């Protein structure tokens, strides 16, 4: 300990504002580059949106439930030549999701590509060739764009002059940038509204509307089907726990329950932060706080990039964490109960700023994987609907409305009295998400991707006004969701030289 203390006196100091997944990853990457790292977090727990709730013997992950691209978490252990399996484990899911429709149609989407094609063809009465062609095109889109749009900064000339970008530009017609995701899906599956709906759902993976987001987003199902979906042992929060343990082991300090009020700078270079518990000097700062709040609260003395900050935000969510007093054998880890009028549902969210009367319901049940997440004979339901962001709506009233319509829908489709099975309840709405994570409007994924220009307008991972100030997390490039937040930490810290 004394050696580390003495060593620190000679190290450059980095402060990370916010202990969301992006901030934790950035801290680890800076530590691997030789920085003395301190992470300052307003909440008295790390993880941001990846929090966990306990009540009445039940455990629920508060935020994300779908885990993809676990290799990006593994990479953080490998930075220190450690075997990730010794710290953190996960298993690949053979079933992606169970889908339910009001007319009694049920479909279990499997991970195996050939099996998926065969079962989709049978259930939706569509040729295997059409599905195979669709999946092939999704793969092409992913391969043409991922390395540029997800893994590099879009704000450096170097990126635009690379061979990858030139290759993508030559094949830009394949990306469906001028059609919406729904138009692309309708083109392939015109006769089958259920299959269109199933593939339209992927727009919600970045909090967007399938009727506005560009057709390139059909690369998301490729990502899920090709690379797989996973379940982390212990639940999603175990990802945070394992990374925080690694950080502490590597000498990173966490100052929890400490609000950063200002980013301090002099001669256009960062000098430190002013927090609720005093000043901390720093040679380098990475803000993992929502970029909107970073400019509005921490950088009041710097001109704001208004166009970036005014970008439409992604959808938010209302979540009912229900402890159910019985088991439901027809349900799996991930379950979707579709609304009959998907287009109207998204219009309610993005155009009218309210909830749709009969929303699509997502249920995640981790006790299907780990029985100890619920008391014996019970299940832990994470029941979520997509909602608009918090713009001052009467959430108390909307909660009651949503609860009633969700219970009615699930009771209808599952043919059980769902209300009678609810033993425990916690509710989180967009205002709650905003308050607990300081995410502007409670957006789950930063800015929406409801425009073909969205990727280009997101805030870069560095400041062009203040030297040694960087940004990571879901509100900046390349966007929200765990994998992209982890990539944002990599892109931001790749600008930083090792000490
Ligand atoms: C309900 C829900 C469901 C989701 N589902 C999925 C999913 O299934 N799969 C998926 O991949 N993603 C999902 N997401 C999105 C994913 O959770 C986020 O994209 C990701 O966790 C955001 O991480 P982040 O690094 O941006 O930090 P955040 O989690 O946003 O954390 C930022 C942290 O910064 C702190 N902070 C802010 N300002 C200050 C300040 N001034 N001083 C100190 N600290 C500050 C905040 O307190 C917070 O802890 C979901 C999100 C939610 C809420």
Record keyword descriptors for this entry:
alpha/beta, 499 residues, FAD/NAD(P)-binding domain, single chain, Polyamine Oxidase, Chain A, domain 2, five-stranded parallel sheet, 19 helices
What does this structure look like?
This protein has 499 residues and is α/β, with parallel strands linked by helices. It has three domains: 147 residues, FAD/NAD(P)-binding domain (3-Layer(bba) Sandwich); 190 residues, Polyamine Oxidase, Chain A, domain 2 (Alpha-Beta Complex); 89 residues, no CATH class. Helices cover 36% and strands 19% of the residues. The protein is built from 19 helices and 19 strands. The protein has a seven-stranded mixed sheet with strand order 7-6-15-16-17-14-18. A five-stranded parallel sheet has the order 9-2-1-13-19, with helices on one face. A three-stranded antiparallel sheet has the order 10-11-12, with no helix packed on it. Strand 11 and strand 12 form a beta hairpin. Helix 2 runs parallel beside helix 11, helix 2 packs parallel to helix 19 and helix 5 runs antiparallel to helix 7. The longest helix is centred in the N-terminal third of the chain and has 23 residues. The protein is globular. It starts with a helix and ends in a 5-residue tail after the last helix. The model has no long low-confidence stretch (mean pLDDT 95). Flavin-adenine dinucleotide binds next to helix 2, strand 14, helix 17 and helix 19.
